[in-house]
Fold this sequence. Notes:
The structure holds three protein chains of three kinds. Chain A is mainly alpha-helical. Chain A is built from 16 helices and four strands. Chain A has a domain at 51-185 and 194-278. In chain A, helix 11 (221-231) packs across helix 13 and helix 15 runs antiparallel to helix 16 (331-347). Chain B is of the alpha/beta class. Chain B is built from 19 helices and 24 strands. The chains are: A mainly alpha, B alpha/beta, C mainly alpha. The A-C interface holds A 77, 125, 128-132, 134-136, 138-140, 142-143, 146-147, 149-150, 153-154, 275, 283, 328, 330, 332-337, 340-341, 343-344, 347-348 and C 116, 119-120, 122-123, 125-127, 129-131, 133-134, 136-138, 140-141, 144-145, 321, 323-324, 327-328, 330-331, 333-335, 337-338, 341-342, 345-346, 349.
Amino acid sequence: MKKKDRMHKGGVEKFIANFGWPRIIIAIFLLLLFVIAPFIGIDVGTSLSDMLVRVGMNGILVLAMVPMIQSGCGLNFGLPLGIIAGLVGAVTSMEQNWQGLFGFGMAVLFAIPLAVLLGVMYGYFINMAKGDEMMIGTYVGFSVVAFMSMMWLRLPYRNPLLVWGFSGTGLRTTISLTGFWMKVLDNFLAIRIGPRFFFPTGSFIFFALCCVLVWAFFKTKTGIAMSAVGSNPQFARAHGVSEDRMRIVSVVLSTVLGAVGMVVYEQSYGFIQLYMGPLYMAFPAVAAILLGGATINSATISNVVIGTFLFQGILTMTPSVINGMLQTDVAEVIRILVSNGMILYALTRKGKGTVK
Amino acid sequence: MTNEKPLLSMKGIQKDFLGNRVLEDINLDLAQGEILGLVGENGAGKTTLMNILFGMPVIQQTGGYKGTITLDGEEVHFSNPNDALMAGIGMVHQEFFLIPDFSATENIFLNREVTRYSLLVEIFGDRLRTLDKAAMNERVVQVIKELGVNINPDTLVSEMPVSYKQFTEIAREIDRAKIKILVVDEPTAVLTETEAEALLAVLKRLAAKGVGIIFISHRLHEILNICDRIVVLRDGKLIKDISSGQSDVKSIASWMVGHEIGDFAFHHTENHRKTENFLSIDHLKVLMPGEAVKDLCLQVHEGEILGIGGLAGQGKLGIANGIMGLFPAEGSVTLKGKSLKLNSPLDAFRAGMAFISEDRRGIGLLLTQSIGLNIAFPLMQVKGGLLKKIAGLFTWEDKKKIREITSSYIERLDIKCTGPDQSVMELSGGNQQKVCVAKVLALSPQILFASEPTRGIDIGAKHLVLSVLREINEKEGTTIIMTSSELGELRSICDRIAIVNEGKIAGILPAEAPVEDFGLLMLGE
Amino acid sequence: MKPKYSLKGALISNLVPIVFLMFAAFAVPMSGLSIPYLLHEMISRLARDSLLVLSLVIPVLAGMGLNFGMVLGAMAGQIGMVLVVDWGLGGMPALLVAALLGTPISIGLGYFCGYILNLAKGREMVTSYIIGFFMNGAYQFLLLYCMGSIIPITNPELLLSRGYGIRNSMDLPNIRQVLDRLVSVEVFGMDIPILTFAVIAVFCLFIVWFKTTKIGQDMRAVGRNRAVANGAGIPVEKTRILAIIISTLIACYGQIVSLQNLGTINTYNSHEQVGIFSIAALLVGGATAENASIANVFVGVFLFHLMFVVSPMAGKNLIGDAQLGEYFRVFVSYGIIAVSLLLHAWKKRHEMLERRLLENEGKE
């Protein structure tokens, strides 16, 4: 866009150009769903609560996308690595029968070191694969998920609530969190209005905390250097910043956030899904942040928040409303089309102001 | 070898580019079988003139040109290279336009392959014709024989020595039906002496067959060797059109370089001390594509303003880039007796050096970020400045201090903007350059490399940048090494000027030396 | 100048199939499965899946990497099959009609895919990967909602109990192994589907012939160096789209061949793994995202399926856990692609640096 044009664009035009048509369409769509809902007999309060719970559940996983996007490593399709670290942390905490917020905290504590380790390894791969990061991330992610599937069968977990009944070894595919730390964050200082509205304060506080930490990180010397690497690697290199090092740091950060985000996800979902569960979990997070306005090499906290709200909103509302209207279950199809459509849109756009 | 009617006639060619007149009233004739040498500094207009002749889209996109071009008596006006090709004009570029994994034959015939008819053409169209490899090979063998070289047509380009790649390019141009004019741009730059001789022989052979050749080069002995006529361009004007027999090296050099000084007066200070071994550069070799440095030795005096000049592509830009670690470098650089680690921008910064890059937008700036961040970045990353500790643990950007510094530079350099938070992308070229200058000033460097610091900016900004450089040299004793393609600019503020030719220092002269002497150095004499 | 040939170079470029061969040498005896049985299995799978993997060769030629978008062709083929079953066709005519129906759909989908890939130059593989998922949504929409409602389906047995939408799986009794059995030769007690292999051979010949045409040469040029090809006047965008269309078509026919061999369609699942497994097989055969030959196809299908069949039993006998063997097989499939991509990225950078150094040496 020529400079002249941009300065002369009206307020509305400028908003549209910045916000992007797909986002606007989806936001209007979501609004429409909320408006139609009561007419089909769907309670707005419950829907809203569902949506909020899901935002709290998924937010940090979306946040995990930011460091790698900022450092120019693209969309983190290798999120399963962080997710696995989160799973290991959770299962280890449950093995000791730790409960409540303590159990949750220990799960996070156990997950982080493993996430750092995996992140460093993944970071080295990412540096080898400059230009093809997303593809390699996908397959490294898949390989690790498959590898862990073998491990889950063999790792020395013994807690009878976790392992298969008759053999006594090998973790179950799905493990329930009832009695451990199910919904501990969600319920922490939760706000209930009437019989139907529920605000998961704890999750939101935690989500907000993580957002603030990430935001603050990008104001530090390292964070600024990292953003420079993603925005203009030649500039960064010319000013003494090590591109490779920054990329590894960003990968470690993303993986750690993925691990933490997974533990939060589990506590809200109420179940731990091992084996092939994490295989495709990167996609919703990727779609969400792109929906929030991020591009392949630039993402902000507001992208994360807006994106998570919009995406989870669509996921929550579409099944109930459309199924209510058409008496069918097109939810799945819409989810596929929307999330992948968003990713496609982002992939076909040029980077934002980068010098490539 | 001259006929009555010229093969090519360019009359009154004029071109404006972004408000600047880059070509004015150029009149050029080329006869059949004539070899015309085109000489000029970078920016003199040679490339633009050839782009016009060749119908490059960039000419059309920037407002077209005035004047007429006549080919074989008919007026022509090409709007894309393919039309020029069809009319018989071929161009051999400096960067090879070849596919490395293809053979010589395949490259020569790229998109012009000889094909055999097959039934499927009826249904699916022409592109389904099968390649007639035998016929193509035969033709290539012939063309190669015409050139008088010895290349196996099946050799892959990636496995050829550089000269053979050159010949393949020429073979391709020749094979295009009815080639009338061949333009070669610095063809011997990448060749060894023997290879260059072979190439010149080939060109002479082509000319003997009636092909008109426009030979662009800065190697005067080659020009005097094979050219029939020599045309010298300077600042977009045609300075001289003379037969090569009537000219000599010295006069060509002075035609090429001699011009008005510009509006800066000579102004040198004598406050530099001839300290022994201040900055010693020994046998520097830099791998910068297009500006390679081969074996450069240079002594820089403390407190001086040293100019580095030379023609484009000879390596002058490679020096600063190599020392500051942007491109792979070898050799030794010593600062005050201490050896500087090469290939590490961080070490260069820590040794007290700083760099204004010639690539303002690519290397010099983070376009999407604010003025403040750009100015603060090196200071922050290199010296840990402009940071404050939060809770004793995290180092955070010190927004307040950054604003202060930025505002002071905005004022000092008269940067036209809406404030320290404005995105650099929105500034004009001149103001962007001022941000780059501010960036290095903030570091208070001992040695400052400034590459093309006034390229592409308005006259007011030019003045300001140069005077700021002069100021920090006088007041703070900063040693400045300024690389520029504008000799006049260098002569106006530098104490000494070194000229780089073919990746080495051709010579160092005091700034007041006569202009032709610089010209000679640039031409490698 | 003769190219440098080194044992090291040969080993590195064929590293993946060599590793797989070693693995097979170890796992085959471990699995306890008999050689004749394995041989029979491999021949059957070669006949079944080679055409699908073959579809990947042309996009690689055109420099577009591994075309995950081949699943679009598989979907087209499946739609053809569903309709054919609905109309009650059987035998060879059924296959031919299915192919006929799938052709225009493949061309349309291929064009769409190629168009988007042109917008995402440099990121073709990820993009085609996502296109596959995206189209899967559209496919589900078509088959789960439109068929039986907007698109009339005459055979009620094909529909879900709710009245519209195609069933999850259906048998193909009239089509099962039609092609395979049509001309088959018995060798050592194994049935070899000669006609199927003949069909595959025809497509192989097509690819070989294609490379000798002008358009094949254009595609090669585009694949090697887009800028030079563009400068020479080759219509880069159109050529790339054409490559994808051809790939989609071959994948369509490949899926039809595959389905007739299996004898059942898993309406919503059959095509999903097709992309991943075909690409894994091609990589196992020694191909890379920049170079794929017909030999890679067959070697790859053979080795990949060998590992596929052998792993669970080997796992069971070695560790006592068949489930582990299953997961091991998945791990190796994905890991192979990851390692192959990594190795190749590393090699590419290494080569680029070397080439830069060499260019500069030449200027001495």
